[in-house]
Amino acid sequence: MKILHILNDGPDRLSSEIIAFQSKDHDVTVIDLSKQELSYETIVDSIFSADLVISW
């Protein structure tokens, strides 16, 4: 399963723990909007290529 986490304000303890746990069994991608300036096209492509999207 491909999981995408979108972090609006950067990682916190809970999001980091969940991402680490899910990474053991799944293909996990993280987009940190507080540190990365990505085009909307890149973000939308990432969303549509994931099976599950979690926004923090």
Please compute the radius of gyration using only Cα atoms: 11 Å
Shape: flat
Assign a percent range to the helix content. Answer: 25-40%
Structural class: alpha/beta
The figure for the number of domains is 1
The major beta sheet can be summarized as: 3 strands, parallel
Strand content: 25-35%
- Overall strand count: 3
Give the end-to-end Cα distance, rounded to a whole number of Å.
Answer: 19 Å
Order of helices and strands: EHEHE
What is the averaged pLDDT score?
96
Q: Number of helical segments?
A: 2
Q: Uncertain segments of ≥5 residues (pLDDT<50)?
A: none
Tell me the strand order in the biggest sheet: 2-1-3
What does it look like?
The chain has one domain (2-55). Helices cover 38% and strands 29% of the residues. The protein contains 2 helices and 3 strands; from the N terminus they run E-H-E-H-E. It has helices at 13-23, 40-49; strands at 2-7, 27-32, 52-55. Strands 2-1-3 form a 3-stranded parallel β-sheet, with helices on both faces. The longest helix is centred in the N-terminal third of the chain and has 11 residues, at 13-23. It starts with a strand and ends with a strand. The model has no long low-confidence stretch (mean pLDDT 96).
Short description:
With 56 residues, the protein is of the alpha/beta class. 38% of the residues lie in helices and 29% in strands. The protein has helices at 13-23, 40-49; strands spanning 2-7, 27-32, 52-55.
List keywords for this structure.
single chain; 56 residues; alpha/beta; three-stranded parallel β-sheet; 2 helices; 3 strands; 38% helix; 29% strand; flat
